[in-house]
Design goal:
Pfam families: CMAS, DUF7884. Belongs to the CFA/CMAS family. Keywords: Lipid metabolism, Methyltransferase, S-adenosyl-L-methionine, Transferase. It comes from Chromobacterium sphagni. The chain is an alpha/beta fold and 399 residues long. Helix content is 45%, strand content 18%. The strands form two sheets. It has a seven-stranded mixed β-sheet, sandwiched between helices. β8, α11 and β9 form a beta-alpha-beta unit. α3 packs parallel to α12. It is elongated.
């Protein structure tokens, strides 16, 4: 077949430009991408349609081919993702390239996007998250903590930064399964409102609040943040601004400003781009995420977060990078995912299994190698007297 010779030429091109301990197997044939005794990764071509993905490789194309099952891979996930980046980054050769959105945010579109991602099934998430099902970057104070310990430390780190005190009110925008509001009510004695657009999360968090007997201190609502009319002493936004859209950030932070009391504080915990000139992850990773994982998700640069906070009438008080922490968090999730792979396949089916396998391991790589980052940004209303500011960050680490 003609495509056999195309693959031979393509593999030779890879060997010359970016050799890798990988092997491609198809129709009883095999070709190696480098010199080695044993391949780290073996790719098995199942259909001839894999040709268009391989000869003009990109992360979204390779991911889609794997999701569709036109080829399979064997090898450690870290090595598989390394190979995907090596192929995609080396895919600029015009000879082989020749062979080969804009998302409008609204209440309805945002609700549909959230439900697509978070309403897969609670049983699915329980198979790879920590026992409290905290689905955001953990905080490894020493690097030796378990995932469960690090997630609790993350919540405490946020709540301590916000200087919570008994009797205050706290709004958690995008409250997930309720871990943050539960901890805030139990440890800090505050009154909490948690809002989400995910029906699964709303129902599960409501059950947890009832089971803990905290109905007098915690309310969970299935509600858009734009429809909240109350004001609060403290606001936490964890993993939420990625869903707002870059153009919507000034209005989002203005809405947070409106919901804060004059002496209130807010904290935004969100993923950001590293390249200040780009709004899309490189090599097609952003297109894969948009199509299969986070429809409508957009990542700003941290500079854009700070600028739009100011546009929203907020003064930035503190900025902390947690990139290393998210690389470790995602690696832990990915290990749990692999450990429970058969149960996950039974729960969500082969296609979703493959989508999330690529997503988790690919994101771990991206945070480890400074492709994307994540920041916690603490702020309050702009224009406050300087005497209201803390002299140091010491209070954030008080036990």
């Amino acid at each position: 077949m003609a495509w056999h010779s195309d693959i031979e030429q393509w593999a030779n091109h890879i060997r010359q430009r970016n050799p890798f301990a990988a092997r491609l197997v198809w129709d009883g044939r095999q070709v190696d991408f480098g010199a080695f005794e044993t391949p780290l990764v073996t790719m098995y071509v199942r259909e001839a349609s894999a040709l268009r993905y391989l000869l003009s490789p990109s992360l979204d194309g390779l991911g889609e081919a794997y999701v569709r099952g036109v080829f399979d891979v064997e090898g450690a996930l870290d090595d598989v993702i390394d190979l995907a980046y090596a192929l995609s980054g080396g895919g600029e050769n015009k000879r082989f390239k020749a062979i080969a959105g804009y998302f409008r945010h609204s209440r309805k579109a945002d609700r549909q996007a959230i439900q697509y991602h978070y309403d897969v099934s609670d049983a699915f998430y329980a198979l790879w998250l920590d026992p409290e099902m905290v689905y955001s970057c953990a905080y490894f104070e020493t690097g030796l903590e378990s995932l469960e310990e690090a997630q609790l430390k993350k919540i405490d780190h946020i709540l301590t930064k916000l200087k919570l005190a008994p009797g205050q009110s706290l709004l958690d925008i995008g409250c997930g399964w309720g871990g943050l509001v539960m901890r805030a009510a139990q440890r800090f004695g505050v009154r909490c409102l948690g809002i989400t657009l995910s029906r699964n999360q709303y129902e599960a968090a409501t059950r947890k609040v009832r089971a803990a007997g905290l109905q007098d201190r915690i309310e969970i609502r299935l509600q858009d943040y734009r429809d909240v009319n109350e004001q609060f002493d403290r606001i936490a936004s964890v993993g939420m601004c990625e869903h707002v859209g870059i153009k919507g950030l000034p209005a989002y932070f203005r809405r947070i400003n409106d919901m804060l009391y004059d002496d209130g504080m807010a904290l935004n915990h969100g993923i950001t781009m590293v390249n200040a000139d780009s709004r899309e992850a490189p090599f097609g990773a952003g297109r894969f995420m948009e199509k299969y994982v986070f429809p409508g998700g957009e990542l700003p640069h941290v500079g854009e977060v700070l600028r739009t906070m100011q546009q929203g009438g907020l003064e930035v008080l503190d900025v902390e990078s947690l990139r290393r922490h998210y690389a470790k968090t995602l690696a832990a999730w990915s290990r749990n995912f692999e450990t429970n792979s058969e149960a996950i396949r039974l729960e969500v089916g082969e296609e979703k299994f493959r989508i999330w396998r690529v997503y988790l391991s690919g994101c771990a790589y991206a945070f480890r190698h400074d492709v994307v980052s994540i920041y916690q940004v603490l702020c309050h209303k702009a224009g406050r007297d300087a005497d209201s500011l803390d002299w140091s960050r010491r209070y954030m680490y008080a036990k």
